[in-house]
Amino acid sequence: MEELHMLLENFWILRDENREDYYRIRDAQGRIKLFIEEKLGYRLVINPHMAKLEKVPGEAEAWMGIQDFKESMDYAFLCLLLAFLEEKGPEEQFVLSNITEYIQATYEGYEKVDWNLFSHRRSLVRVLVFAEKIGILKVNDGEQERFSEDRTTEVLYENTGISGYFLRSFGRELGDDINPDILLEGEWLTGDTERGSFRRHRVYRKLLLSPAVYSQGPDDQDFLYIKNYRNTIQRDFEENLGAKLHIHKNSAFLIYENSSRDKSFFPDGSNISDIILQIGGLLRKKLDEEKLHVKPDDTIEIPESEFHHIIMECRELYKSGWYKSYRELSPDKLIQEVMDAMESWKMIVRDKKLRSVKILPMVGKFTGEYPENFVKGVKTHEE
Amino acid sequence: MPQIDRLNMELLKPLDEARYLTAENAARYRVILRFFYEQHQRLRYWLYKEDVFDYMKQFAVFSDYTIEKCEQDLNALSQWKNLISTQDTTKAATLEEFKNKKFRYQLSPYSIEIERMTIRLESLSGYGGSLEPSLFERIYTALLKIIDLSSSPDTAAIHRWWQDLNGDFESIYHNATDYIASLQSSRADELMKTEAFIVYKDRMIDYLRDFIKDLQRFSSAIEEFLKNLDEDVVNSVVEKLVEYELSVPRIDRIPEADEVRGEIKSKWFNLTGWFLGYGGDESEAYRLFNVTNEIIRKITRFAARIAESRSRTLSRKTDYLKLAAAFAACKDLNEAHRLSAAAFGAFNTRHLAGEFERATESITVGVWDEKPCTFKLKPKTRNYSESGNTGAVRDCSESKSQKLKEYLMSLEQEREILEGLIFQNRINLAKLPEVEPFVRITLLRWIGKAMGSRNKTAKTEDGRQYRVIFPKDHERIWLKCTDGNINMPAFIIEFEDVG
């Protein structure tokens, strides 16, 4: 169970960095392989360098990307860096200017790479920092962060030799037309195309990776699968991950035991997580007062401006319990941050054209409250 | 009738490697090659032009020598195959080093022989030699005899003993260094990159391991023995050797007793120095040990690399290039994030976590129709303390903070005690009073840490740089401790001057 968690919470586990976990996983592979291969259809890669579970999503979602990255250019640079490293042997050394020259010469985008631009340098620095963190290159000498300030900065690097494993295997060469659907399509076509097994894989993957799986309508086959096979699914996740499955009218959630080792879970005690819980409470109250109405598909649709009001109301009511940085955030910034977080957690969907917000079922699962003595204290204080 | 010999065709070729002895600039060439040879004997096989230049400049004769001239000389010597030049392939530690990576030079096997010959010629004193593990054992047993011999009247026997001892020592001196040089040469590097090498790998490593074991076992025994050897014993044997030398009838000239004594003593000094180190330097035995270890590491690394390249899949370069273009064409960051998820997979999962309880197992009830799960929030303000909570919790945290306080205090005390041992930026282990066990543990940890690094430096837990200095005369001391004593070299730990 623990080993599967490690594989899920980390991109890979490098032997040189974390021997203990690496060997634990290697020893446990017999136990966890069945679930991984049968139910998820995943490949567990264990070689002398690393243990890696290729966490192919059932559906590609934005939060699954590299959160350190701020521009699509960052990703393009990362791929070029990976291509550059393919030509280098393990432990081979090179300098930053080798990389910048290579990227400049090979980059194909709307605009040309110009290292005189701060934004381009900044983008590359994000990529380099990420590359070092994840372990595909090592800094031998120099400070790469300085490149964003000074384009003449030199850094001595060493190839670790594992860049080739960064990209998951597709079992075929990539065509020229690349988008998430095409990349994931291969997943469902390889092996037996029997509906049963690839649907099972996709459903298990959605539940495994995402915070929520929502029904797309009465004909949503994946959601029907979850409902029909809920007992097996529940047992599988309980046994292998200690997670519980909650299925509602239009939504399904895999709920983990609260665990600090996980990288991303909700609620996590952060201020933004508190605010979202408080918004959940406010929405409940408005439903009780019949100011809001739930649609048959278990969602609530309101104009964007109304949602902004709810956030501001939340601020008025509870900000005395927030960090100073949140208390002093301008309304625009606060609204932006709360909505971005909720969107990436599959709690709301924005319709930019209609300027409306659809509140998804997950928000109905929680509310948050301050301890009574605090609320009293605040009130007496204010009086 | 004179017999007609078949002419050895080899004899028709000029020996380019010997040209440096007679060429116009022979003076410079010979000094350079002698320098290479001397370094070669010290297991330093690769030299850069700067090394050569620095060496040459110290002689008044070459005061107008320039780095350009030096490069020309090295080129000439490379052309005559006296030197083998290769581009440096070792790892650079700094940017500067990487940029300055140039050619490095190694003596060719011919030059080694020619230099040896010239040395023999000067004093009227084979690449591919092999390491002979038993040599160390033989030297050790031979050395043990010295005590008996010092009181033996049989000078001829002593002479034979001396000859054998020197013979064995020469074998180590020449064969071992040559063998290792050939393993370190660039050709060996090439060989190690081939698949055929895998077959030899294990045998080679076994061989080197045996050698190391033998070296370790006997060199420390020899070292110990030599250190404790009574000076009088040595002197008496030397005198007997002198006596013998002088008693041998000679036709040419009769050597002076002092001259013979000097020669014998310098040979003895060489031999002991090889095991003990000359004047405080690391001993050659120790260096040989390190070099052999390094070679084993290199062999293992190369082997792993070959095994890997066998199993490695195709280059994914084209895939990466195509993906780069696809990412560059993404409209916004979210689209790129989704492409990343499909291409690389998710980096972690995202889930609701915690005590989400449900009153029902129904799969038809809407979320909003059920009771939500209510989480207790902890106010983030500083002036809110959980003072209203039960006392049990508070007590526990108090005792915890008390424990933490005590722990920090004891750390501070230990730090102060260690601080008190430092005198003039140094901790001299020979001069320490009886210490507490934690002091010993800390000192041994520091020493151990520094031993792992090339120049015997490391950093303490609080970030201070230090260096461990070996005792010059291999002095050993007893470090007295409240729970027992430990015998160890009289190390000195020198801290970097922070002021």
From TrEMBL, chain A:
Pfam families: DUF2398
Top-level taxon in the UniProt lineage: Bacteria
InterPro entries listed in its UniProt record: CHP02678
NCBIfam families: TIGR02678 family protein
Protein name: TIGR02678 family protein
Organism in which the protein naturally occurs: Biomaibacter acetigenes
Upper lineage: Bacteria, Bacillati, Bacillota, Clostridia, Thermosediminibacterales
TrEMBL record, chain B:
Top-level division of the source organism's lineage: Bacteria
InterPro entries to which the protein is assigned, alphabetical: CHP02677
NCBIfam families: TIGR02677 family protein
Name assigned to this protein: TIGR02677 family protein
Taxonomic path: Bacteria, Bacillati, Bacillota, Clostridia, Thermosediminibacterales
